Amino acid sequence: MKKASRFMPEYNAKKANKPALLVLSAVVLVVFIYQPVFLLIPLGVAVLVMLCVAIEQPGIEKYFQNLCEDRKGLSICDFSREFDPKVVDTWIIRAVYEQLQVALPTKQKVPIRASDSLFDTLKLDEDDIELDLVEEVAQRTGRSLSEYKNNPYYGKVTTVQNLVLFFNHQAR
Questions:
Q1: How far apart are CA 118 and CA 105, in angstroms?
Q2: Tens of pLDDT, residues 127-166
Q3: pLDDT tens-digit profile of 57-93?
Q4: Strand, coil or helix: what is 117?
Q5: Helix (H) and strand (E) counts for the chain?
Q6: How far apart are alpha carbons 24 and 20 in whole angstroms?
Q7: Phi, psi for residue 86 in degrees, rounded to 5
Q8: Cα–Cα distance for residue pair 167/36, rounded to 1 Å
Q9: Model's pTM, two decimal places?
Q10: CB contact at 8 A, 94 and 80
């Protein structure tokens, strides 16, 4: 029997599918050789996205800097006190807090509150939550994502508290 670790595992990203990468690389190479003009469209889109991010990022950094100043002195300990440890798994509390830090659109360590809106306060994108954050927290906590539609918090995850409670209702 495998001995349970008392340390929470880090998130381990899945490896890229090598055959798919080879096929994609071959397609790009063929297009580059025979029809290079078709590469201008994705290149143009990429440049536009990078410009938008470069223009928006200083405002986002200032927003999070002000948020950090307003919450000076708060830590993960204060965050965890917002939940009853007899009801909510403390590993979920920690995993959600830590993975949100990684997901935030800033490099600053932002003190997070359970009442924070994932979208308005923390400026997260719904796709980033559904595609990345949920998988990362599930992996770190050992919670299954099967039958998530039966979860009482399904479709109601708009705050950090609801995200924690969503995972607390998922099977191990």
A1: 12
A2: 888 888 999 999 999 999 999 999 999 999 999 999 999 9
A3: 899 999 999 999 999 999 999 999 999 999 999 999 9
A4: strand
A5: 7, 0
A6: 6
A7: -80, -20
A8: 47
A9: 0.76
A10: yes
